[in-house]
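Lab notebook page, bench 4
Experiment: in silico fold of construct C2
Operator: M.H.
Input chain length: 256 residues
Purpose: comparison with the prior construct
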Amino acid sequence: MPFAAAPDGARIYYERHGAGPAILFVHGSGGHHAAWWQQVTALRDRYTVVTVDLRGFGRSDSSMPEFDGQDFPGDLIAVLDAEDLRDVLLVGQSIGSVAALRAALQRPDRVAGVALGHSLGGLDHPELSELVAADRAEAVKLPVIDRLMSRKFQAEQPAKTFLFQQMGTFNVAKMADLRNLSTGGPTIEEIVASGVQLWFLAGETDAVLSVATVKRAHELVKGSHLAIVPGAPHSMYWESPDLYNAAVAEIREALA
């Protein structure tokens, strides 16, 4: 049961599976390392698959009195250093994408690419900020579970829907605790100058961040790539794992 030491001494839990080119998955606000069960089993025969618990989540240190999203990139870098991983693809889910992008910009010597799943990674750009805010204003009109999963999946897969909802009960940190998560986000110029390859990985039916917003971000970030998973909601890694896994594998192969 490996733990890595973050810069401030926090113990960060992670797991490493398989062998080959490396992929590190970074969970969202309701997840932790085990949320990637459908990715680990599908990809570990071809790739080194690393999953991690950010501080306040899963088995990582949750003893701090408050949680600051600005600490998350250091948690990821601690794992990269502990395992001496290089040429890594960081795959973020929602808020995990913000941490993934910042970690990549801080350590481009270890990170070859970043896939921003259902997120713009906290990009600092006025037009994109307005588009994201408009999308969120529509999303909050829906029940939380309907923002994350399709109603069809909920009806047809009640057990998997229940398990998905239970995932968050293992976490101490909540979305409301993650102050400063996107404060001081990177500019488009900083991303382009870093040389880190960037993918926007979107679900076609995401109710939290619209495909139109993601496409606009892709247009603005010159040299970025766009992957849209057809018919997939915000939590496509859970609801549409086969399509999602294929998209991640295609991105990983493009880096090789």
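Observations: Strands lie at 3-5, 11-18, 22-26, 48-52, 88-93, 111-117, 197-203, 225-229. The chain is about 40% helix and 20% strand.
Next step: discuss at group meeting.
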